[in-house]
Design goal:
- The longest helix is centred in the N-terminal third of the chain and has 32 residues.
- The chain contains twelve helices and no strands.
- It is an all-alpha fold.
Length: about 325
C-alpha cells in the first residue's frame, strides 16, 4: 500500500523527470534553431512537438534500461524477482509519469495520443497500490506492465521520433529516394517491434494465466480490455507509418512532383481510422503485415478464451 514517504519519493522523481524534460526541450529547440537553416519555415506547433519528441529520447533510453531486466526474465520463475526489481518498476513508472506530464503541455491534436499518455500515472498508481511489496509476489504483474513501457515508450517511441525528425527536418536536405529508404527501414523496425510487443504480451498472459486470473479475479476482463487497447494503439502507429513509407516510395519513384506532407501530422491525424478500416487499408502487397496482425489476433483471442475458461466455466463445472 502507498504511504506518505512512497508518495513523496514518487513526486520527487516525477518532478525531476518533468524538469529534465523541460530543460531538454529548451536545449533541443535552441540547437535546432541554430543548426537548421529551414527551422523558421516549420510551423511553431510542429517546432514544439519535434523538440519535445527529441527531448524525450534520453528518457526513453532510461526507461529501456530500467525495463530490460524484467523483459529478459519475463518467463522465469517469480523467485528470481527481488526488491531491486520492484524499485526499478516504480522508478520507470515515476519517470514516465513526469516526462509524459510535460509532453501533455505541448499541443497535440490526436485524442488517442492524449489518452495514451495518461496511462503513465495510472501504471504508477496501480503498481504503488497493489504490486509494491518488494517481494516475488510483485513479479508477474510488474513484468507485464513493464513490457508496455519497454516496447511502447522505450523502443517504439524512439523509432517514431527518428521517423518524425527525418520527415519533418531532414527531408529538405536529402533526396526523396534516401528519405524513403530511411523511413522504410525505420517503419519496418517499428512494425517488427509492434509484432514482438503484442505477441510477447499475449504469450506472457497465456504463460502466467493462472496467476493473472488469480490476481484479477472476476474483473479480469477489464485489464484484458485495457491491454488490448494498448496493443491496438501500437498497431495503429505501426500501420500509419507503413502507409506513410508507401507514399514516400511513390514520391521517390516519380509518382509525385514534390515531397508532400503525406499525413505527417502524426500527432494530429486528419484521418481517424475505425476498427473496420484497420485491416481494410492493406492490399495484397502488405500480406506480411496482415499475417502479423492476424497472428497476434489469434493469440489474443486465446488469452480471452483462457480467461473465460478459468473464470466462468470453472464455476459452472464446480
Amino acid at each position: 500500500m502507498m504511504n506518505a514517504q512512497a508518495l513523496l519519493t514518487d513526486v520527487i522523481v516525477a518532478t525531476t523527470a518533468f524538469l529534465f524534460t523541460h530543460f531538454a526541450f529548451r536545449t533541443a529547440k535552441r540547437h535546432l534553431e541554430t543548426w537548421l537553416p529551414t527551422w523558421n519555415q516549420v510551423k511553431p506547433s510542429t517546432q514544439n512537438r519535434l523538440a519535445c519528441e527529441i527531448a524525450l529520447l534520453p528518457v526513453r533510453f532510461v526507461l529501456f534500461v530500467c525495463c530490460a531486466p524484467a523483459i529478459l526474465n519475463a518467463f522465469s520463475s517469480p523467485d528470481v524477482w527481488h526488491g531491486l526489481d520492484t524499485s526499478r518498476t516504480v522508478l520507470a513508472c515515476a519517470i514516465m509519469t513526469g516526462s509524459y506530464a510535460y509532453d501533455l503541455t505541448i499541443e497535440r491534436a490526436d485524442v488517442l495520443s492524449l489518452i495514451h499518455h495518461l496511462i503513465a500515472p495510472t501504471l504508477l498508481l496501480w503498481v504503488r497500490a497493489s504490486f509494491c511489496t518488494y517481494t516475488s509476489s510483485d513479479a508477474v504483474m510488474c513484468r507485464l506492465l513493464l513490457s508496455f513501457v519497454f516496447f511502447g515508450a522505450g523502443v517504439g517511441g524512439s523509432l517514431t521520433t527518428l521517423m518524425l525528425v527525418m520527415m519533418k527536418l531532414v527531408k529538405t536536405q536529402i533526396s526523396a529516394a534516401t528519405l524513403y529508404a530511411a523511413v522504410s527501414m525505420l517503419s519496418w523496425a517499428l512494425t517488427v517491434n509492434t509484432f514482438v510487443s503484442t505477441m510477447f504480451g499475449s504469450s506472457y498472459m497465456l504463460w502466467w494465466d493462472e496467476e493473472l486470473v488469480r490476481i484479477w479475479g472476476h474483473y479480469c476482463f477489464i485489464p484484458l480490455f485495457l491491454s488490448g487497447f494498448e496493443f491496438y494503439l501500437q498497431w495503429r502507429w505501426a500501420l500509419r507509418f507503413q502507409s506513410i513509407a508507401d507514399e514516400l516510395g511513390n514520391v521517390a519513384a516519380g509518382a509525385g512532383k514534390k515531397v508532400v506532407e503525406v499525413g505527417l501530422q502524426v500527432q494530429g491525424a486528419k484521418k481517424q481510422r475505425t476498427a473496420r478500416r484497420f485491416l481494410a487499408a492493406y492490399r495484397p502487397k502488405n500480406l506480411s503485415h496482415t499475417l502479423m496482425i492476424y497472428s497476434w489476433g489469434v493469440s489474443y483471442a486465446g488469452v480471452y478464451a483462457s480467461a473465460v475458461q478459468k473464470t466462468f466455466l470453472r464455476q459452472v463445472l464446480a
